[in-house]
User: Which sequence fits this backbone?
């Protein structure tokens, strides 16, 4: 994200400019056609919410492996499973989540399942759309991991 | 929600398994059972409300259904054209 865009979004989060003004500024920067604003700011936390965020979320995680011996593996996982899994983890009994957190900490993951919110999952999934892993080996094996 | 579960297994050109399991026929009975058990679920919810950290037992049941419905589109496909073998599992 460019510095100017970041500055505009910070001003919006701080409440110094309105959503419409920020859209005008962003349009002026990028020359993009004006669209109806779908962003809103939580005045308590300063967080910016974009109603269109869900429309841009990738829907599937794809893994494609083409082996040198001709074997092909193609896996397509709906990312909705990730959301559903996170929701189930949020309703786990406290003693279960404490055990899981301690096991994760023992393995070196400084991670607390209780801190995961559904907005965090949407943000994670939206960034996954940019993720692409391509591996080509000398044997002719190829591995591709991406989201669509 | 997935309507069919397809399982196909082929080995050396011979079709060993080709199952089309109609998932949708399970949804209506599951819904009926869920509605019938709803009073019991709510009672469990009230009795054990302190046991669940953030949600409730009712929410857990709904999350379970959400997990099942998000299976639509899941696909695992492994094939080897040289050996003419195939294993495919998918929810459509």
Assistant:
């Amino acid at each position: 994200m460019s510095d100017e865009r970041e500055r505009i979004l910070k001003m919006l989060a701080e409440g110094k400019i309105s959503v419409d003004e920020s859209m005008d500024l962003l349009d002026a920067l990028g020359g993009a056609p004006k669209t109806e604003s779908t962003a809103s700011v939580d005045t308590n936390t300063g967080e910016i919410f974009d109603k269109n965020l869900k429309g841009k979320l990738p829907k599937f995680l794809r893994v494609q492996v083409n082996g040198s011996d001709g074997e092909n593996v193609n896996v397509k996982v709906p990312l909705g499973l990730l959301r559903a899994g996170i929701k189930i983890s949020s309703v786990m009994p406290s003693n279960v989540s404490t055990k899981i957190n301690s096991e994760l900490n023992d393995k070196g993951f400084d991670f607390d399942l209780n801190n995961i919110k559904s907005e965090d999952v949407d943000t994670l999934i939206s960034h996954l759309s940019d993720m692409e892993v391509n591996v080509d080996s000398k044997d002719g094996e190829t591995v591709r991991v991406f989201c669509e | 929600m997935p309507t069919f579960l397809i399982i196909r297994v082929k080995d050396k050109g011979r079709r060993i398994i080709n199952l089309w399991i109609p998932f949708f026929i399970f949804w209506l009975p599951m819904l009926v059972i869920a509605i019938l058990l709803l009073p019991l679920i709510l009672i469990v919810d009230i009795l054990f409300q302190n046991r669940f950290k953030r949600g409730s037992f009712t929410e857990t049941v709904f999350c379970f259904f959400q997990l099942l419905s998000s299976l639509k589109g899941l696909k695992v496909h492994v094939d080897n054209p040289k050996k003419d073998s195939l294993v495919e599992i998918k929810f459509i």
Observations:
- Chain B has two helices and four strands.
- Residues 24-47 of chain B form the longest helix (24 residues).
- The beta strands of chain B are 4-11, 14-22, 75-80, 85-91.
